[in-house]
Structures are given as structure tokens and as C-alpha cells.
Amino acid sequence: MHENENIAGRLGRRQRISGRFSAWGLSLLPLLLLGLSSCAAPVAGKVEPIRAAESPAKPNLDRAGFVAWARIINTGETAFRKAEVRLALPRSGVGQEIGEILYPSGAPDRVVTDRFGNRIAFWGVRGLAPRASFGRCYATDVGLYPREYKLAARDSVKTLPDDERALYLADGEWYRMSDPRIAEFLRQIAPSGDDIAKAKAISKFVSDRIKYVRDSRWDAAPAVMERGTGSCSEYSFSFIALARSAGIPARYSGGYRVRSPGNLYLDTIAHRWPEVWLEDIGWVALDPTADRGKKEPLTHFGRLPGNLVQAYTGDVSELIGNDYRGSGWAEKGEKFADENRGFFVRNADAAILSDGLLQLLKSIEAGTFDADSAKSLTKDVPFAFPALEPMLFSGNDAAASRAVELCEEYSEPSLIRLLENFVEHGPAGPARIAAAGVIARMNLKKK
Question: What's the pLDDT tens digit per position in 327-374?
């Protein structure tokens, strides 16, 4: 059930926000009241309540506000007739507690569940001009903690239905289990014992054989293992191909990963990891990518760190393909680039982030966003960090210039990728020139 709410309604309901948010909340209140007095209260979009799972007393990542953006950019020479962005929506489960999903950039046109049970939000646009872009987001509270599975605990009730077993033993374009190289790799591994022992042997083989390399491409498992290099996705494809060939159901999960202990972090890299079905135990996550080069192997078999937002689980989706966070879509033959980014703001509340983003986006859309308002709207408030993405690509030079300034002020290395993408695909103007200089200075600081 979706419910439309305006800003005032949500602020009234949010009296439970803890004291640590009060300073940001008070600094944002005059802005919100100003916005409400100057126009009719805007609708923030649909709010989808999600029942939270039980969480331990001490999560690895303290409660944080999280905003995920997906953006499509027309890199062709003609306007798109139709384009979309799609985002996989996370749910509470092992290792994560997810709050209600808020849509500060506007409610999705629809939310559809794929054949693996993942919920995908869709937003569409028509007539997207060359070099123009279209982005949409969701915001939510996250609590993250280590994913630990009790491998010694047995429960005879935990059996995999026949249709699911067939689904997760099937071949696919990323696995190519009929390739003779897969049989040869299994011969080298010679997995024996129960499924736990076999899965561990396969995971160790994958970790030992593949050297981690991110090269912006995905290849099928036989080619990856033959050349000996690959990304986290290719580690996952390789494990799944070998596990399924050995008769063990396997699938992948993926989402966003926090790689910094700071209060602000932008994830542009993401992460994918495999899961294996162990009879009488259930689905167990593992991470052969993280186990590479370890003196003690298999430290990530049934044990993952508490820095992951899992957005998707299953296999290749009929809705977002082989992606696991979301993607852009345009009609066949159209040229486009798409980006997906996850913004983490520690000790911030998603309602504050969402309300601030909503007001900023309304200001840009109304054409009232100038250099003065750019500074006042983004001074000492938490939503300024996830607002960097829409400000850069807004087509408003005051907004883009202020976002470039903030990137340098925050001095968070993860923002370099965002600026690089803006320089490559963003609207022409002084802000793009300034961004190139900021990138150079931030790279010098990293050395």
C-alpha cells in the first residue's frame, strides 16, 4: 500500500527522531517553512513501509541515512522517444535493517516484483535531449551488521522446493557450464564430502585462481578462470558455474558497500557476492573476492562484514538484466550512459535527507535556484551530500558550481568518480571546467 504525504505531514509524524539529528533538523526547518509559505506543499512521493527485521544491539555501521541514485544520460545526437531508470529496492534481512522507502525525487511510475522476488522501481521520461540526463532516487534508513550463518546448526525443515532447485542449477550466459573448461576446473578441484566441503573447496579454488581486476567489463566464467583475472561479479559467476556443475544450487546477491569509516561515503563501485544452498541449513553467503590472497582461506565463507546494503538476490532479472542495483534503459539503438550511486550519511535520518532533497529539487525545477540560494540551501545540512548528484546534472550552473565546491570541501576521495562522470557527460559550462581542477587537486591529496 502506498501513501502520499506532504512535507508538513511527514515532519509531524517524525517526532521520534533522536536527539543526534536535532541540530540538522533545526537548521533545515526555516528552509522548509519558507518553501511551504511560498508555494503549495509539494508531494514528496510515495512512502512504502517495510517491516524491519530484528537487529543486534551493536550493528557494525551505526544507523545511517542512505540515498541511491540512478541516472541515464543521452550520449547520442537525437532526442530519445522514451527512456527509463530502474532501481532495486532493498529489504530487511540477514545483516541489514531497512526503514521505510522514501521517494524525494518523485514517486515511481510503478514498482514491479521480478521472478526472484526483488522489487524494482521504474521511472520514465520522454523526449530526453542529447547530452541531457534523467535521474531518480530513493532514501531510507539503514542499520548494517555482520552477516553470520550457523553452519553447524541443522534444520530438516529447510529444504529447497524443486522449482527453485531447478532455477538455481540451470546454466546461463554468464556460467556456460557446458564449456569443457568448467569440467576441467572441477576435475582439478575434485570436490568431495558433503555440500559444505564441496562449496568451500570451490570457493578456495576461485579465490586462489583469480586476481582482482576492475576493467569495466564482464565475461563468462570459463574465460574469467582461464585468464585468471576478474571483478567481484566475475568471481561470483565463476563460483556459481562450478557449484551448479557440482550439483549445488547457487545464486548471487549484490548492492552497495561502505568502504570508509568516515561520516560521508559515496559508493560508485558496488559489490556482488555469491550464495549457496546447503541442505538443512539454507542459503549461505560467501565472498571469494574478499578471500583472495588471505593467509587463512575461507574467512568469508558464511561470514560477511557489516558494510553491505543488499539490494538484489537471485540471477539475471527480466527487469534489470545482469545488474543488481538498477540501470538506465532506452530503446534499441539509442546511445546512452547510465550511473548508479549510493550515498551514506552516518547519524542522519532518511526523512531529513528526503525532505531536504525534495525542497532543493523543487527549487531547481522552479528556476529559483541561484548562487545565494545554492549556499543557503546546502549549508550545514545533511542532505547536501546526496544532493551533489542532482545538483551537478541539473543544468543549473549555480547548482553545479556549488556542488563542485562542496566536493572539494568534503574532500571525500569517493567523490572523484562522481566528478569524473560529470566532466565526461555533464552539461557544458564553468562548473565542468572547475570540476576538472578539483579532480586534479583531490588526486594529489590521495598520493
Answer: 899 999 999 999 999 999 998 999 999 999 998 898 888 888 888 888
pLDDT grade for 61, boundaries at 50, 70 and 90: low
Q: Where are the domains of the chain?
A: 3-146+324-446, 147-305
Task: Note the CATH number of domain 147-305.
Answer: 3.10.620.30
What's the rounded Cα separation, in Å, for the pair 94 and 32? 36
- Alpha-carbon distance values, 46 to 97, 267, 288 (Å): 20, 25, 38
Name the pLDDT band for 60 (thresholds 50, 70, 90).
Answer: low
Query: Distance between CA atoms of 14 and 111, rounded to whole angstroms?
Result: 25
Name residues whose C-beta falls within 8 Å of residue 271's C-beta, 6 or more positions apart in sequence.
Answer: 232, 254, 255, 256, 257, 289, 308
- The distance from CA 299 to its chain's CA centroid, rounded to whole angstroms, is 24
> Taking Cα atoms as reference points, which of 380, 328, 354 lies closest to residue 66?
354
Cβ-count burial of 117 within 10 angstroms (0-12 exposed, 13-18 middle, 19+ buried)?
exposed
Answer whether 383's CB lies under 8 Å from 350's CB: no
Residue 121: beta bridge partners?
87, 111
pLDDT band for position 154 (50/70/90)? confident
**What whole-number distance in Å separates Cα of residue 206 and Cα of residue 293?**
11
Does the structure show a pLDDT above 90 at 187?
yes
Give me the residues paired with residue 101 across strands. 48
Is pLDDT above 90 for 246?
A: yes
Render the burial of 293-320: b for 16+ CB within 10 Å, e for the rest.
eeeebbebbbbbbbbbbbbbbbbbbebb
Q: Greater confidence, 279 or 13?
A: 279
> What is the DSSP annotation of 330-384?
E-TT--EEEEEEEEEEET--HHHHHHHHHHHHHHHHHT---HHHHHHHTSS-GGG
pLDDT tens by residue, 188-223:
999 899 999 999 999 999 999 999 998 878 999 999
Strands 110-113 and 147-148: what pairing?
unpaired
* CA quadruple 430, 433, 439, 445: dihedral sign: negative
Q: Are 131 and 79 in contact (CB under 8 A)?
A: no
